[in-house]
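Throughout this chapter, every protein is written as a compact record of paired, labelled lines. An example of such a record is reproduced below:
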Amino acid sequence: MTRKQKQNHRYNGYRNSGYQKNNGSRKILPVIYPVFLYFVVCQIVNMLMELFPLAAQIDAVKRQGLGSLVAFMVLYICYVRPEAAESGEKKRVFAVPVSGRLAAGMAVGVLMLGCAGIAMNNLIALTNLRQISDRYQTVEQAFYSSGLGWEILALGLITPVAEELLYRYIVFYRLRSLTGSAGAVVGSAIIFGLIHLNIVQTIYACTLGLLLGILMEYYQDVRVPVCGHIAANILSLLRGETGFLAGLQPGDALFVPMTVILLVVVVIIAGLYVRTFKKS
């Protein structure tokens, strides 16, 4: 069986589970439902935490981490387990042994998304988008309100795993059954970006979402984009909370050349994957 045949086989569970092409609004509803459920669960967790006697001492970072963890479990139970069982691949999400090819993909994901995250932050820093987006400033203050350890755990580990399960697994597969590979890559990235509801994070998340979608389409294992997402988030946290990359500020001698180098690395890696898609 060729690599392309294996890729198509992995989507049979979703094709056979009722997500094939149909008419009217039913096409998009199976894509929207999981996203809606994710945010409803997060809001319910936040509401329940308000009932705790010491709720005022629980910062936004811890709430985000707990909400993402509960939402991850709900999505896994409601969507992933039943659909994977129906397709006959009960352990294909996280429990499959890591092959050499997959390990290499994880390493590439860390490299590409790490470079992309730094480069995108540099490019955004050249604009005044952060200053004109009040919502982004509010989000930034909230998400840097805890200790670095909690930020890495909640925003650097838990949230990327939950979001990749949602956007690059559930949403991605359902879009792919409707629109094909390109539609899944682009569509999941757009949804991922728009859901952040501010211009800075929308641009950043859409761009990184495209790269994460490319990795998902090529490796068809959500653990690869998970590793890339974790790398991008942790590097952003370290950059914001420590002196890491202190020499890469606008106006510094290395700012422009390093940004260009990082972008070139990202474009080359992504281009190689896209070229492989075209050949197959």
